[in-house]
């Protein structure tokens, strides 16, 4: 029987400042966001989705993303990324100095319409415009988040070949850009074996020198950590998590929380997988994030007495 050995290291992409804060209805003071981000950096986080360059009318919580980027402009060791829904968002992000852009397209037509009010084909046309912009910036790179890669709240289970279809169309537009592809469990309904099968099939079909893989999960059904572990054993080198388990997709009913960063780091520590994150300091950040007004957190580790965590 073959044994899956854990990888030597995994990149944790902290998404609480975007996916987490976005789930809170009332705008948070920018100073509170900065304090939480500082605590995450103090804990050893080196990759972070800091916000989104979207219309403030659509998502008021993200209106201060530019201020957050400016506040941490001197953190050379940090890899900050920002979600951009269209060409205008990409232009704003690059003007603010963000070099890693995140573009989302759902595999499911119905979810893509609910999320961005466009067909999948229209989203891919917008992706082509962003790629054309990035081709003139040697330092920029692109993250493609494939929403509803496993399940759609409107259409049900998503097969891997449906993901393959959208990914193939997207890759044909991306030229020689360095591309990180994230398979996103938008509803949290994925199971570990489904995650493994999707990664096994898609990584086998799309291996390329400038292509890397990531996983974005929710813990709605309690599968967040298990799904992340199966993803990293089948090709993912980065995993999105949110400290304190904050956040969820507003267009996926029941997807209440992202997988908690501290829960995954604890699991990785058990396999001696390096993440660079200090769990004691991370729990300080988790407490601060969980205390934000209006947020829904879902962390298992925060409920354990601190003297039992090591």
* Coarse structural class: alpha/beta
Number of strands: 10
Residue share in β-strands: 15-25%
Biggest beta-sheet profile:
8 strands, parallel, barrel
Q: Kindly provide the radius of gyration, computed on alpha-carbon positions and rounded to a whole number of angstroms.
A: 18 Å
Strand adjacency order, main sheet: 1-2-3-4-5-8-9-10
Based on CA inertia axes, which overall geometry fits? globular
Count of helical regions: 11
| Poorly predicted segments | none
The ordered H/E elements are: EHHEHEHEHHEEEHEHEHEHH
Rounded mean pLDDT score: 93
Assembly state: single chain
Helix content: 25-40%
End-to-end Cα distance: 31 Å
Please describe what this structure looks like.
The model has no long low-confidence stretch (mean pLDDT 93). With 310 residues, the chain is α/β, with parallel strands linked by helices. 37% of the residues lie in helices and 16% in strands. β6 and β7 form a beta hairpin.
Question: Which helices and strands occur, and which strands form pairs?
Answer:
Elements: E1 11-14, H1 16-20, H2 30-42, E2 47-52, H3 65-71, E3 79-83, H4 87-95, E4 100-106, H5 109-116, H6 120-134, E5 141-147, E6 151-152, E7 156-157, H7 160-171, E8 179-184, H8 192-206, E9 211-216, H9 224-232, E10 238-241, H10 261-270, H11 279-290
Parallel strand pairs: 1-2, 1-10, 2-3, 3-4, 4-5, 5-8, 8-9, 9-10
Antiparallel strand pairs: 6-7
Helix pairs in contact: 2-11, 7-8, 8-9, 9-10, 10-11
